[in-house]
Design goal:
The complex is a heterodimer. Chain A has two domains: about 230 residues, Rossmann fold (3-Layer(aba) Sandwich); about 100 residues, Beta Barrel (OB fold (Dihydrolipoamide Acetyltransferase, E2P)). Helices cover about 25% and strands about 35% of the residues of chain A. In chain A, the strands form four sheets. In chain A, strands 6-7-8-3-9-10 form a six-stranded mixed β-sheet, sandwiched between helices. In chain A, strand 11 and strand 12 form a beta hairpin. By secondary structure, chain B is mainly alpha-helical. In chain B, about 70% of the residues lie in helices and about 5% in strands. Chain B is built from 14 helices and four strands. In chain B, strands 2-1-3-4 form a four-stranded antiparallel β-sheet, with helices on one face. In chain B, helix 4 packs antiparallel against helix 5. Chain B is globular and about 75 Å long. Classes of the chains: A alpha+beta, B mainly alpha. At the A-B interface, strand 6 of A face helix 9 and helix 10 of B. Bound molecules: adenosine-5'-diphosphate (ADP) and magnesium ion (MG). Magnesium ion (MG) binds next to helix 1 of chain A.
């Protein structure tokens, strides 16, 4: 039984632009769902429709067994954390947190209890009397979180809340948001264009592209079992290697006249072959005719590992290896394990 | 470096002297009797009639005769305090009224989607092309028709609409981030609460700036009050400066001393307003509320 559900949602902006095209997503209670996709794919539009800040052209949004399509934002029992925090600059942190409750007529004592509890949780108690401009970016982010927490809503909505923080703080807040959400058990939708955020935070990921759902699933499913070329290319860093492959009498032919015995093949003669960089093995001694010549161009030292940038035939290929041992030099071969090979339709990008 | 500082200061001091000297002369001269000024001209040094001149001016006691249309007759002069009150009412009413109306107008234009919104905005905006002087006769007609001649309402109300202030508030509201407005919607702040709790406090610096400008403009109104009031009870300080020359001290000499005192008096409130609000204004600007 889903707690928050989007059913066949369509959004056409007044200028005729179709930002969301028939999106359906079901979110279980307490689940942390991340909408991820490139900029302009309609993530914010979708989230803002759930919040009530944008009208729904077609479709139904249900939250806790209640259709909320036409409810005022304030009556939907959701709380939103904005990208630029959107704190009230003239109010103290305390008042920023309390404002939504004051406006809902909560008794003073209850407001005070909730504000202090949230402040405690977020470790901003000592800043309660400050104004937002006296806080750092990270602290403002916490206040914005606090404003959502005190409401004790049915669902949290986050719209790229970490994109204004520096990398280190971002990693830290990522964990913290996730931990808080777990602790509170509140259903959450989190919108981001950053696939690392999506992978690390989500219980479930919904990958969006051009207003459509490309794939929905757990981070592991999305990563290991991408439903389309788009998902395969978008999720994962370094990106999945893509090779144009042809198949002929049990052989696979790659650009540059590379011909090997095909360990796996799709149901047609031409397809795009996708391989995660860490699933390719590099060897000096080729095994039984399935190894491909790998021409090394550049080595990227990452400390914990190494990225080998090179070419197989004419196609650039990146291989991720563990960092120990000498940097291999020439006369290398790449092995593509059959289980790691993903085939996609060359035209539609659909998984074969 | 040091020479530069000295030169800078010299220039500044010269500028200050240039601006202050006439004011000082007016003030110094106001501490003499009218006869002394008529005989010896304006003064740089303080005299001993400060209490006499200023006392007479504020109470309106010293001026007993008036000469107009060739006739000399006994009238009571308008007291300086009454004129000060009238000027303050006009200046404050003007400034506060304009701010209130234009804030609301801009609020409607920026935040409420109604079909003719942009049209109304441009109508308001193009009224900038029609200053009071151009439409003064029809304006008078309307006010007279409403029976508001010789009333504060008649003095203030017709001047209260302000395209300039509306435009400034509109620009100001437009740069308030959309997200903050949305956050307020989620916080259950309806239009009235949003205006009172958020828009108004955020606009404080803007209000201070417009208040300074509008107060001075209102304070300096001359043509409009002359047209709109016939009763001396509504004389403002600026009208008084002109009138006071007709008031004869001791039946012979125009009351130059009181005229100077009145000129000085009429400068003080705008200066105070500017000084008071300016510190505020600068503070608001440097604290940067957004
Ligand atoms: N008010 C609007 N009117 C017309 N088009 C819009 C409007 N808001 C957003 N769009 C368009 O809709 C698409 C999706 O926008 P958005 O949901 O903000 O994308 P993102 O995934 O980056 O958050 C974009 O191409 C954007 O240009
Ligand atoms: Mg967005």
């Amino acid at each position: 039984m889903s707690h928050l559900s989007l059913a066949n949602i369509i959004k056409t902006y007044p200028n005729g632009f179709e930002a969301v095209r028939d999106v359906s997503v079901d979110i279980a209670k307490g689940e942390f769902t991340v909408f991820v996709g490139p900029s302009g794919c309609g993530k914010s539009t979708l989230l803002r429709m759930v919040a009530g800040l944008e009208t729904v052209t077609q479709g139904t949004i249900t939250l806790a067994d209640r259709v909320i399509n036409d409810l005022e934002p304030a009556r939907r029992d959701i709380a939103m954390v904005f990208q630029n925090y959107a704190l009230y600059p003239h109010m103290t942190v305390y008042k920023n947190l309390a404002y939504g409750l004051v406006n809902r007529g909560f008794p003073k004592a209850e407001i005070d209890r909730r504000v202090r509890e949230a402040a405690e949780m977020l470790q901003i108690t000592e800043y309660l009397d400050r104004k937002p401009q006296q806080l750092s970016g990270g602290q403002r982010q916490r206040v914005a979180m606090g404003r959502a927490i005190v409401r004790e809503p049915e669902a949290f909505l986050f719209d790229e809340p970490l994109s204004n923080l520096d990398a280190k703080l971002r990693n830290h807040m990522r964990l913290e948001i996730k931990r808080l959400q777990r602790y509170l058990g509140t259903t959450a939708i989190y919108v981001t264009h950053d696939q690392v955020e999506a992978m690390t935070m989500a219980d479930r990921i919904v990958v969006l592209n051009k207003g459509k759902v490309e794939q929905a699933g757990t981070p592991a499913e999305i990563y290991h079992d991408p439903a389309s070329l788009f998902v395969a290319g978008f999720m994962g860093a370094p990106a999945m290697n893509m090779l144009e492959a042809r198949f002929e009498d049990g052989h696979m032919i790659l650009p540059g006249n590379i011909r090997v015995h095909a360990l796996a093949r799709p149901d047609r003669d031409e397809a795009t072959l996708g391989l995660r960089p860490e699933r390719i093995t590099i060897t000096r001694t080729p095994v039984n005719g399935t190894a491909l010549p790998f021409q090394l161009d550049l080595v990227e030292e990452l400390g914990a590992g190494r990225l080998l940038h090179g070419r197989v035939g004419e196609t650039p290929v990146t291989v991720s290896t563990s960092g120990d041992g000498e940097v291999p030099a020439d006369d290398l071969h790449a092995e593509f394990p059959a289980a790691a090979m993903h085939f996609f339709d060359k035209e539609t990008g659909a998984r074969l | 470096m040091k020479r530069g500082v000295i030169i800078d200061h010299a220039i500044l001091i010269l500028g200050v002297l240039f601006l202050i000297t006439p004011l000082w002369m007016a003030f110094a001269s106001s501490t003499y009797t009218a006869q002394e000024i008529a005989r010896d001209g304006m003064r740089f040094v303080l005299g001993d009639n400060f209490i006499g001149t200023w006392g007479d001016l504020l109470t309106g006691a010293g001026s007993m005769f008036t000469e107009s249309e060739g006739k000399t007759g006994e009238v009571t002069a308008v007291s300086g305090l009454l004129m000060l009150k009238n000027s303050l009412i006009l200046g404050l009413g003007f400034a506060i009224g304009k701010i209130a109306i234009s804030m609301l107008a801009a609020y409607a234009i920026v935040y409420f989607r109604f079909p003719a919104g942009p049209f109304f905005f441009w109508i308001i905006f193009s009224s900038l092309l029609l200053p009071l002087e151009v439409r003064i006769i029809p304006s008078y007609e309307i006010v007279a028709g409403l029976g508001l001649v010789n009333s504060y309402t008649g003095l203030i109300l017709p001047l209260i609409a302000s395209a300039t202030a509306t435009f400034f508030f509109r620009q100001f509201y437009k740069q308030i981030p959309e997200e903050m407005i949305e956050a307020a919607r989620l916080d259950n702040a309806g239009p009235i609460r949003f205006f009172i709790d958020i828009l108004f406090p955020l606009s404080k610096t803007m209000i201070a700036a417009i208040f300074i400008i509008m107060f001075v403009v209102g304070w300096n109104q001359y043509l409009w009050p002359i047209l709109m009031t016939t009763d001396k009870e509504f004389n403002t300080l600026l009208m008084g400066i002109k009138n006071i020359i007709y008031i004869m001290d001791d039946g012979k000499t125009p009351a130059y001393n009181q005229a100077f005192a009145l000129a000085v008096l009429s400068v003080i409130p705008p200066v105070l307003i500017v000084v008071l609000f300016q510190s505020w204004f600068v503070k608001g600007l440097t604290e940067s509320d957004k």
